[in-house]
Write a structure and sequence with these properties.
This protein is α/β, with parallel strands linked by helices and 367 residues long. It folds into 2 domains: 244 residues, TIM Barrel (Alpha-Beta Barrel); 73 residues, Arc Repressor Mutant, subunit A (Orthogonal Bundle). The chain contains 15 helices and 16 strands. The strands form 4 sheets. The protein has a 9-stranded mixed beta sheet, sandwiched between helices. Helix 1 runs parallel beside helix 2 and helix 6 runs parallel beside helix 8. The two termini are 28 Å apart. The chain binds iron/sulfur cluster.
Length: 367
């Protein structure tokens, strides 16, 4: 069964580090955008869906009527599995209780809140639209609306961020007692304002020490780390993300959205106005595609598997895709095990805490 991702690109202003597909000041075209989403959805009419994720941008920046229309488009076109995980991404600013009620009534059962930090100095540094007080109030509002599965996005490795500041920030975020936490290091992406400002970040060693501190604090606070950047309370792992990491199929709608169906990955244009005109003139905003060979699919499942704490069974993955890792790749894996970066445990290949600090490099050498 597939999962469904819908991209809502609208944002009030672009944060300084943002490299996502966002459209600032285009809120007035939300109706046209929903027309496009409805046309795209018709191509998947009757599809069974096991999790829904409405991401952005800032989905909560849409009006109540626009949100209601979005949910009716989903219900008109898809069979949403009973007890499917249904997430909406929200930002603290403008998160009204009335919109949370619309989500609840529509069957949304998980909110992902873009907190990023509870230190106002760094929220200003990121160019975020909210401060710590607004974030905490938004979190309380989500709780009050009856949601019992809440993710908080948190960032670290800000310019000149001290270990002490980081510890205080993590402790403040942990006081929210969210069910799930997604952790991101600040990176300087080409399309971001930080890139043009030539912002300098701490070196890898310092960032590794910060990462280990955060992992240690969250684990001691009762979070289970199930993926390199994701922590959850018991039974609150993200089912939507697990599908990606296990090579599952997914439908992506909207500007810049990706889909993966029957070994083919395809994506829509990431230019907002092109998406609108393509969907007005026709019924596809597809910009590109690639056909993944079984070997490529297997490789991805192995690499994603190494990012998960439970690891990956090479044997089962090879059987699933009917192909085998090369002798060279198996030789490298043995070396990584000898050097303590990977461990073979419970029939699975797993990444050690030492390996996690250099996992990108290990994966780059494995492909
Ligand atoms: S709120 Fe998120 S998507 Fe919007 S500009 Fe900021 S980082 Fe980008």
């Amino acid at each position: 069964m597939k999962t469904l991702y819908i991209h809502i690109p609208f944002c009030q202003k672009k944060c300084f580090y943002c490299s996502f597909v966002v459209s600032v000041g285009q809120q007035g075209k939300a109706g046209l955008y929903l027309d496009g989403l409805e046309k795209e959805s018709k191509q998947y009419y009757g599809e069974k869906i096991r999790s829904v994720y409405i991401g952005g941008g800032t989905p909560t920046s849409m009006s109540q009527d626009e949100l209601k229309r979005l949910f009716s488009i989903i219900y008109k076109n898809y069979h949403i599995e009973f007890n499917a995980e249904w997430t909406v991404e929200a930002n603290p600013e403008g998160l009204e209780s009335s919109k949370l009620k619309i989500f609840k009534d529509a069957g949304v059962n998980r909110i992902s809140l873009g907190v990023q930090s509870l230190n106002n100095k760094y929220l200003r540094c990121l160019g975020r639209n909210h401060d710590a007080e607004t974030a905490v109030a938004a979190y309380e509002r989500i709780k009050k609306a009856g949601f019992d599965n809440i993710n908080v996005d948190m960032m670290f490795a800000f310019p000149h961020q001290t270990i002490d500041e980081l510890q205080k920030d993590v402790e403040a975020v942990m006081r929210l007692e969210s069910d799930h936490l997604s952790l991101y290091t600040l990176t300087i992406e080409g399309q971001s304002r930080f890139y043009t400002r030539k912002i300098r970040l701490a070196d890898d060693q310092y960032q590794a020490a910060q990462y280990e501190l955060v992992c240690d604090l969250l684990t001691k606070a009762g979070y289970e780390q199930y993926e390199i950047s994701n922590f959850a309370k018991p039974s609150k792992c993200s089912q939507h993300n697990l599908n990606y990491w296990q090579g599952g199929e997914y439908i992506g709608l909207g500007v810049g959205a990706h889909s993966h169906i029957q070994g083919e990955r395809f994506w829509n244009t990431s230019r907002f106005n092109d998406y609108l005109s393509l969907m007005q003139e026709g019924d596809s905003a597809r910009e590109g595609f690639e056909v993944l060979t079984p070997f490529e699919q297997m490789k991805e499942v192995v690499l994603f598997g190494l990012r998960m704490n439970r690891g990956v069974s090479i044997e089962q993955t090879e059987k699933r895709f009917g192909c085998f890792l090369s002798d060279e790749q198996k030789e490298k894996i043995s070396q990584f095990i000898q050097n303590g970066f990977l461990v073979q445990e419970d029939g699975c290949l797993k990444t050690s805490s030492k390996g996690r600090l250099v996992l990108d490099e290990l994966c780059a050498r494995l492909v």
